[in-house]
Amino acid sequence: MRNQLFQYLHFSRKERNGTIVLLLLCAFIFALPDILDRFREPLTTDFSEFRKEIQAFRDGQRASAPNASPDLFYFNPNTASQEDFVRLGLSEKTAAMICKYRDKGGQFRRPEDFKKIWGLAEADYERLAPFIRMGESASLSEEKNRQSTPKSQFEFDPNVASEDDFRALGLPERCIKSILNYRSKGGRFRRAEDFQKIYNLPPDDYERLESYIVIAAAPAPVETNQPFAAKKRAPQAIDINLADAEAWMTLPGIGEKRAQQLVRYRDQLGGFLSVEQVGQMYNLPDSIFQAIRPLLLLNSHNIRRIDLNAVSVEELDAHPYFSRKQAELIVNYRQQHGPYRSVEDIEKIIAFTDKAWIVKVKGYLKV
Asked: Residues 108, 85: contact at Cβ < 8 Å?
């Protein structure tokens, strides 16, 4: 038994030499990567494209950064204009968001409500909170701001003067809104004395401006024997790319505010490519769109297109069909791969998987 076990475990000289060679070969194979690393040149990573993206991001941040030296003054967030918010040191985007919130019916009832605006930094709210005035305090603060603002004096017709004209004349914001509201409802100043009937017009402002009021003669009324209902302007077909707010208001269900929204939406798009786009406007009921659709014409195709090789992130983001992220992807692709050769190049951006959206936006792009 012992001899059999010895013979089973015994290696001949040839087998021992083969085992040694095999061990040496295994050791060499395991050590080979470390040996090769000593002769291989170190790899260098090219961060140039990454640095370009970082620089583009920083440029975008600087472009949307708020005013470096803001003015501080008392303001009512329910009546202040977008320009006022920018003067207070807020970014253009935040100021536009506040105005959009108000346009949709939002209202600030307490100063604390102002910090609920999405995108408003806590530091900005803390800086502006002492200057927020509402109700009676807002009127007093507005009066202080108005008294500290230089007033111009020039001849004006209260029936046609613009909001900026009244503001340049030094009138309070509440008074300006009352005048514009009075005119929008069909009111007319026939004599200079009628101007002082605006209930919130300060008497000293009327005395200061009385000699500058020049009222043009009203057009003579057209005599007609037709009943009143026949005098109402009947709905007529309009060219959706040329119609102004007054033309839109002739359509059933379209009032002054909705007409202005349609004109603003068209301007933001750069023009309508199809009648169906009118129905895509936010807050336009489908029932109204279906009622006015037979009266909508598309004879003018003068579309304002966006140059992919010159547009900025902010300009693309302002278009209703582009989000901020989509705008950044388009601009970053141009910076990484060079100028676009055709509009179809945006399909090469991997993140754009929505083919219907690509077809929709192509009509507003150019190279």
From this structure: no
